[in-house]
Structure prediction request, 268 residues.
Amino acid sequence: MSITNMLIVGFGTMTGAMVEGWLKAGRPATTFTIYHPRGKDVPDGAQMVTQWPAHPFDVVLLGVKPHMLDDVAPGLKDAVGPETVVISVLAGVELASLRDRFADAAAIVRFMPNLACALGKSPNALVAEGLSEAGKVDITALAQELGSAEWLESEGDFDLVTALAGSGPGFTYRFIDALAAAASRLGLEEQQAGRLALQMVEGASALAARSEFSPGELAQRVASPGGMTQKGLDVLDGDDALITLLTDTLHSARDRGAEMAAQARRQG
Ligand SMILES: NC(=O)C1=CN([C@@H]2O[C@H](COP(=O)(O)OP(=O)(O)OC[C@H]3O[C@@H](n4cnc5c(N)ncnc54)[C@H](O)[C@@H]3O)[C@@H](O)[C@H]2O)C=CC1
Ligand SMILES: O=C(O)[C@@H]1CCC=N1
Prediction:
């Protein structure tokens, strides 16, 4: 299998970031055909179609909201042929639910990216059924152009991985805002607090990503014994406060995935 054409159904925030990443990685824009019943702006060189295509594609990428799966699946009957790999970024929607809609597809891939695809910095979780070895190589390459490819042995942890790596940017943005809000409450001017919080997180995560030290070791390198940082860490670490908060956060997000999975299963 080699991917020369991809139909995208649901060209929004997430798949828009993916296409931006693929274009930056050097995929030709002519690879992409985007379906939307009312049309939309697409990158130069990509094709926009308002009618359902009548021929099969190498890849069909599903990027609509999960509850809209059945609005688009029937229209894809000619676009999904026996050689087609269907890739879904739909949170919560299981492989079996996708196979139920796309019985003819060669393979189904659940692909969980995040918005950092646009920068080639998304950790991409993957699980598939029906995929050949050659297909796996191609899908891995697609994922690596957007960041990394993290294949899961089975689907069991997919919602948890979605909560961590797919929803994770949302939680991180909240953390940045919370740091700024806290500094602001303690007296710092609001805009300045926002700038400092954002630049601090950018620098700290870039450093952690390239450091020989783990995040835990880096925290120790910041904290002088008896100094200021240690006093702050004691608040986060006391009673496992931060871990407890984040466990609750991931738990709640993961459980919503399970509810969405149940909604996407067809009865009978
Ligand atoms: N936003 C994120 O950070 C992430 C989103 N996802 C998944 O990506 C999917 C899309 O989410 P977003 O991009 O955030 O939403 P979005 O609302 O930005 O994108 C959905 C797109 O579908 C289009 N659409 C609606 N009806 C359509 C139709 N009948 N035919 C073709 N296109 C149609 C809309 O115009 C819209 O552009 C969801 O399933 C979500 O679970 C996964 C990982 C991260
Ligand atoms: O909020 C959602 O359901 C999706 C999953 C990961 C990011 N957005």
User: Anything to note?
Assistant: The chain has a mean pLDDT of 97.
